[in-house]
Amino acid sequence: MSTFLGMPRGRVPGPPADPAVGQLTGDRPFPAAARSALGNSRLRANLAHATSTIRAKRAAVVEEVPDWEALREAGSAIKAATMARLPELLEQLEANVVARGGQVHWARDAAEANAVVTDLVRTTGADEVVKVKSMATAEIGLNEALEAAGITALETDLAELIVQLAGDKPSHILVPAIHRGRAEIREIFAQRMPGVDTGALTDEPAVLAAAARAHLREAFLRARVAVSGANFAVADTGTLTVVESEGNGRMCLTLPQTLITVMGVEKVVPTWSDLEVFLQLLPRSSTGERMNPYTSTWTGVTPGDGPSEFHLVLLDNGRSRALADEAGRSALHCIRCSACLNVCPVYERTGGHAYGSVYPGPIGAVLTPQLTGLTGGDDPNDSLPYASSLCGACYDVCPVKINIPELLVQLRAEHTEAHAEKHRLPTPEAAAMRAAAWVMRDADRFAAAGRAATVARRGIRKGKPVLPLPPPLNGWTASRDVPAPPAETFRDWWSRTRGARS
């Protein structure tokens, strides 16, 4: 039977017409958006404080685990094996969910996923849903799609609630409101939260949490439909898993009559023993905890216990594109821990909004372009592979050992090739690189270039950097100094001290 990522053709006809649909693309390239963010001193202070705190917590709990590197290796191996047989595992997951009373829907892109969820909510007659924090639903823009259909989506995660009340966008995978300080949150609650006692409201975390709890309590009790994501799905039992720290997820997963889960197809794991590895890796890498306070698992429906109707929406939205890239598919190994964001010097200074996509930071810089594709043109996502210093800190902390720097270099090469195919005339950078390659291919030419640089040094004061260069070279010297050429080249030094041979 002809299949598309293991999905029968009759169910999902062909590849996505627009894999970038959803909240995966910003309106500006990263450099322009980052430049604006760098001018916001409050944003930078909030990010520096939050990321340093999370880094310290993670380092402390990881240090306690003597076999941490072995766990990382195991996680990486499980993910690689899962991607190698993903279609088979997805069909196994579907069969087991259906056998246990659930229903499975396949969505090739964000538009289809939103249509499925909207239709399911309408069928229940509800005009409101409560939501568990979910990157998949943020990716497809589900809240906006439900709002357009006259359905209110109420975020119940504290950070997501802050973002929603502020009319803002998430800027972090784990802590969506990381760019907001306590005083800002207090003002958001005072101005936007219905029924809040502004006189008693302070910026103390306990007071803010209590206000949110009171605001959400009635919503939990009246909710008939809940929407969630899933951290993992176990193929051999049809079990879904959500991990969280506040208890709001547990309320959404157990109280409503109907539960709808939207999950990226890469979140499947083969067995419960595989899940065991990730339940050790994820909390330490994400929240700096030994285990998640709430780990909820459910398998289909159970009469008299929890929701009486369960729907699983399996989302592609460009994942087939990433899976087809044998080298780049490791980006799909991501378990959304956000450890790479917390150590990234670029993210810490620009924040998540600069990336445009709901997936910011180092993992977003590789995952988003793979989901949407590189055009070789002016698409904002084409700039994301360059949003990195390639320092390697992200690779060091990734719990499943995704080599993000290597993927970034690969994507940069792909972007350059796509640009060359699209534009006949080379860019100034490409022309300069070709000239450098021509010089370096010949020993005599390379030696002559070194001597020429030494001659050019005569007009520069000893030890002083080269002044800003004229266009188009000023693009380089505008943000860095060019060191003064040495008084003697290495080749001349070698010839002088080791013999006449050059």
TrEMBL record:
Pfam families assigned: Fer4_8, LUD_dom, LutB_C
Annotated segments matching region Disordered: 1-20
Residues covered by the 4Fe-4S ferredoxin-type domain: 331-402
Iron-sulfur is among the record's keywords: yes
Database matches in InterPro entries: 4Fe4S_Fe-S-bd (IPR017896), 4Fe4S_Fe_S_CS (IPR017900), FTHF_cligase-like_sf (IPR024185), Helical_ferredxn (IPR009051), LUD_dom (IPR003741), LutB/LldF (IPR004452), LutB_C (IPR024569), NagB/RpiA_transferase-like (IPR037171)
Keywords: 4Fe-4S, Electron transport, Iron, Iron-sulfur, Metal-binding, Repeat, Transport
Segments forming domain LUD: 90-301
Gene Ontology MF term list: 4 iron, 4 sulfur cluster binding; metal ion binding
PROSITE patterns linked to this entry: 4FE4S_FER_1
Domain Lactate utilization protein B C-terminal, residue spans: 426-496
GO annotation, biological process: lactate metabolic process
Keyword Hydrolase listed: no
Protein name: L-lactate dehydrogenase complex protein LldF
UniProt source species: Pedococcus cremeus
